[in-house]
Amino acid sequence: MIDNIKKVLLVDDDQNIRFVAQMTLEGLTEWKIIPAESGKAAIETAPKEMPDLILLDVMMPEMDGPTTLKKLQENPALRPIPVIFMTAKIQTDELENYLKLGAAGVIGKPFDPMTLPDEIAKILNSVKR
Known about the structure:
By secondary structure, the chain is an alpha/beta fold. The protein contains five helices and five strands. The protein has a five-stranded parallel sheet with strand order 2-1-3-4-5, sandwiched between helices. α2 (39-49) packs parallel to α3 (65-73). The radius of gyration is 13 Å and the shape is globular.
């Protein structure tokens, strides 16, 4: 599954997190990272770019991650794209809720930049598609 990743849509309202994640992932993988600063930007960008993976912040102003995911899933072409939530809040019940919404998995913040690609690979490899 991880070998199919070429393009990743990275959605986070925090510019520093976008910067660190983009530098890390582009430095440690062959992936092209497409940054988006909001749920609205993700919804506009995803159909144009057709990423292989979406990394989606949970807590964002205006439109949070779960709402963004629901909107993305309204487009049949985007439904097969795995979405991994990134959040500082990972309680068991929240994690279960994110998975019920259709997320492939959740990565905690702050994340370790050096292990981020491995965390993504672990989640994607565990998803039965």
